[in-house]
Amino acid sequence: MSEGRRESQRQAGLEHSNNLLSQSEVLKRREGWKYAALERVLEGRDYEFEYGLGGYVFDLALLDVGVLVEFDGPYHEQGEQPDVDEVKDTVAERNGFVVVRRAVQPATVISPTTIQGL
Question: Is it true that domain 22-115 has CATH number 3.40.960?
């Protein structure tokens, strides 16, 4: 592919960038199946799954009470992830939210009991 063609494709992409989904929207579509059981118990509340805030995406925002819930699998204890989580928590707190972390098994439907009492 020539440089001219590559540049032409890049420009065409930029012209249509408004058609692209946000990171939050992509995650909602990809991860929505995990939240099916939670949606039933959240009916009537102000909430959003895969909530974008300050360049980060939080698993669940309970907007009616100012709580962000993170469903953490075992990988949240490894490598750089604890540091990333700490920064995310700071961003949330600076924006008036409280962060609650709940341990979950990866690739499973999240049980409503994980948010009991919130």
Answer: yes
Q: Is 102 helix (H, G, I), strand (E, B) or coil?
A: strand
Residue 110 binned pLDDT confidence (cut-offs 50, 70, 90): very high
For residue 48, the cross-strand partners are 61
Where on the phi/psi map is residue 112: left (φ > 0), alpha (ψ -120 to 50), or beta? alpha
Helix (H, G, I), strand (E, B) or coil at 31: helix
Residue ranges per structural domain of the chain: 22-115
The model's pLDDT over 27-81, given as tens digits with 9 standing for 90+, comes to 878 888 999 999 999 999 999 999 999 999 999 999 999 999 999 988 777 788 8
52 phi and psi angles, rounded to 5 deg: -85, 135
Burial of 95 (0-12, 13-18, 19+ CB in 10 A): exposed
How far is it, in rounded angstroms, from Cα 111 to Cα 41?
10
Q: What one-letter code names the amino acid at 43?
A: E
Which single residue is written with the structure tokens 């949330």? 92
